[in-house]
Design goal:
This is DUF7154 domain-containing protein. The protein has six helices and eleven strands. Strand 2, helix 4 and strand 3 form a beta-alpha-beta unit.
Amino acid sequence: MDIKFHTNINDVTTTIQNNLPDPNLGFQNSSIGSNVFDVIEKFFSNTQAPVCGSRILILLKRYPNEADSSRLVSLIRYHHAVVHVMTSATPSGGSQPKTMTSVASKTNGMGAFEYDYYFPEITYWFPLYNHPYPAYATTIQVSGSGTRTLPDFHISASHDNHIAITVQDHVSDDSLQKLILRWTNPDDSGNYTVGPSNISTSWHGGSLRGYLGYLPLFNYSMSLDYDYSGHDVQNLQIRIYSLTAPSNWLPYSD
């Protein structure tokens, strides 16, 4: 297993084009799990490129078999890194679909389940380049319908922000009826709504939703109105990413 390091996009593109997936090198058994843990650990142990503050996007076709990610999460946090994971809705094997989503949750990243055909389009909505810095991160569990008060959001710079939500931590089903993320203070308020049509049409049935919104320099109270059919527990990632690095690193949370 080799990792290639480059400093410009043209070299990255060339390397990818010269190393496209080869079915003959694939796992021959669906019970074999992904080696994504090993890949991440090897990246952080490399001596060719700096790793502190890394932003990592993993395109995951095969689930890992590991359920315990605590050691991996500690390694990522030690290097002040963020891991985003886009998991295939049609995996080729492995047994633990939620492990890498949990890793993303615990490192202020996003973990989404998407259909392979739309990977290139959905990649655009991961906060990698234009809005790479975590400014707000909370992960909550909800069931049925109701309203949740969320932690306050303190803005350090006034500009467009990338607001991102994963509506479920598995392949999307038909249970989501509506989500409304609200931000308010005495001088300003706004909201971002996600409904079934956003999932089926605008986002091709995946679980990640993104929105670019301008928020002035204020402190905001945050809340979420949610409505799901049935009473299954839903795990939601709610994130805001910024154009500029915060003066203090956003703390991680479990």
